[in-house]
Amino acid sequence: MSSSVAPPMVIVPAPLDALVIPAALDGRDGRNRATGRPAQIAATNDLTAIRAWLARFSDTKTTFENYRKEAERLLLWSIVQLGKPLSSLTHEDLLVYQHFLSDPQPSAVWVAGCGRKHPRSDARWRPFYGPLAAASQRQAMVILNVMFAWLVEAGYLAGNPLSLSRQRRRKAPPRITRYLEPELWQEVKTFIELMPRETARERFHHGRVRWLFTLLYLGGLRITEVSANTMGQFFSRRDATGRDRWWLEVTGKGDRERLVPATAEMMAELRRYRLAHGLSALPVTGEDTPLVLPVGATRKPLTRAALHRIVKDVFLGAASSLRTGAESNEERASRLEQASTHWLRHSAGSHMADLQMDLRLVRDNLGHNSLTTTSQYLHMDDDRRHRETEEKHRMDWH
User: One Pfam annotation, family name (predicted)?
Assistant: First the structure.
């Protein structure tokens, strides 16, 4: 009699909160499990150990989501691709994984269609939206090293398989590359200006797109900052010459606050946007109106994913227009298709620098931490920062 062989387990990648791992792969008997010393956490398998690590970051949404994403990707790759528990991974496995990040294959299993971000509850959700750039690969491995080190310290793992890596940090590129050159930026603005406005819904969408792009570019805001802040955070104050200047107080990354110059051009766009929706021309302090309005009467702020989708659709539409125009340009169209919301922030910083704005002012506009040695001299420069931003950083809508 021939003995029957059990078919291999088929596991479909799923988010951590919905993932069910067979006992043979859950890490309870992982080869790298710590033995002979008391554990500091109650976790008995890899999934609960990862959740214990992530719980440390639950009060910082962006950090939590970034760390969960990297832990989730590695865990899924380990059990789906290698068929072994995360707590059995070796140093060599992690080298293979880093190579995998540059081209997650098979793409049907790992990559969301058309690079779209689907909700975690959606059956179309996938761990990746495409290959990771070199900088993103390094960031992923840094986060995973932090996770492994903590699991060792907590007494769950015997050793950190990434501790043997001593990767030499590559020199940063001389300039930001993920941004829109002025000519390509003009193509995007032209596409927005030519968007249809025949119906009330089309007029609503056009106005929202125009205002959102104004905020992201003139303000250099992150997409999370657009979602998390309100119109009530605009305020005016009189400068040294007696002129009233408007500012937007933004709570951004790491709950740090900064003042963004609300230039005359930005305030004109804000007035236009608010009046189109029956609001007063200018916001009042403490007003809870979202920076970007949702459809309908609700005042619930749009999510980061919804804002990202609006921006991405504009880039894709502008790329399509480039391809079908009188002078089709495949290279520029392809570049626009790669663009994301954060490209607008990079574009803002690059364009301000190109116009020879003081880099210290650019730093403060974007809320960066660089050039810290000069920060003690900048307390008196807010008026100049506002003036130079207004003069040199513009939308110039037609």
Answer: Phage_integrase
Known catalytic membership, residue 273: no
345 is catalytic: yes
CA separation for the pair 379, 376 (Å, rounded): 7
If one counts the domains in the chain, the total is 2
Asked if 377 is an active-site residue, the reply is yes
Cβ contact 132:140 at 8 Å: yes
Residue 150 token pair: 């903590």
Same domain, 259 and 365: yes
Q: Which of 126, 222, 332, 393 is catalytic?
A: 222
CA nearest neighbour of 147 among 51, 13, 227: 51
Cβ-based neighbours of 292, under 8 Å, separated by 6 or more: 208, 211, 212, 215, 226, 227, 301, 302, 307
Full domain range(s) for residue 50: 16-153
- Poorest-confidence range of 20-24, 106-110, 380-384? 380-384
pLDDT of 6 over the 50 cut: no
Percentage of the chain modeled with pLDDT above 70: 87
CATH number at residue 268: 1.10.443.10
Residues 237 and 117 in one domain: no
Domain membership of residue 377 (yes or no) is yes
Among 368, 384, 392, 394, the active-site one is: 368
Both 225 and 78 in a single domain? Answer: no
**In this predicted model, which residue has the larger pLDDT, 262 or 62?**
262
User: Is 342 one of the catalytic residues?
Assistant: yes
Question: For the whole prediction, is pTM greater than 0.70?
Answer: no
Choose the catalytic residue: 51, 206, 253, 271.
Answer: 253
Q: Which listed residue (84, 116, 178, 342) is catalytic?
A: 342
The percentage of residues in the chain with a pLDDT greater than 90, rounded to a whole number, is 53
Identified catalytic residue from 189, 332, 335, 345? 345
Give yes or no: 206 in active site: no
- Of 135, 153, 171, which residue constitutes the final position of a domain? 153
Is 61 one of the annotated active-site residues of the chain? Answer: no
158: pLDDT strictly greater than 70: yes
User: Tokens 């865990």 correspond to what residue?
Assistant: 75
